[in-house]
Amino acid sequence: MCLQDRHLGDFGLSYVTISAKIPRRLKELLDKYGIKPSDVIRKALEEEIKKRIIEDLEERAHKLKHKLSHISDEEIARIIREEREKQGEENCTSSSMQAPS
User: What backbone torsions phi and psi does residue 98 show, to the nearest 5 degrees?
Assistant: First the structure.
């Protein structure tokens, strides 16, 4: 597998090129049907990444569930309510400090 960095002008986007060997017959079929391998590969990689991220989050949520199992639903609701109220107060304070339009 070959990786090559490529930067695109002023857009600040950075890409790498990944190459892979495929059977000649597969390449012929890609050409025959006008399939752009880069689009297919990009979509497949994005789907695999999404799948792995979801698996990771599910595993972390499972571990967290066990760590937090001793906290009651009421306690969790109280903590969330307090945090929301605190954030609301911070938003009011920061918006009152801005100059009027």
Answer: -80, 150
Per DSSP, the three-state class of 8 is strand
Say if strands 2-8 and 13-19 run parallel, antiparallel, or are unpaired. Answer: antiparallel
Q: For residue 30, how many other CB atoms are within 10 A of its CB?
A: 14
Q: What residues contact residue 68 under an 8 Å CB cut-off, 6+ apart? A: 76
CB 20 within 8 A of CB 38: no
Model confidence, pTM:
0.55
Per-residue confidence (pLDDT) for residue 92, from 0 to 100? 72
Tokens 């090559």 belong to 4
**What is the residue extent of each domain of the chain?**
2-90
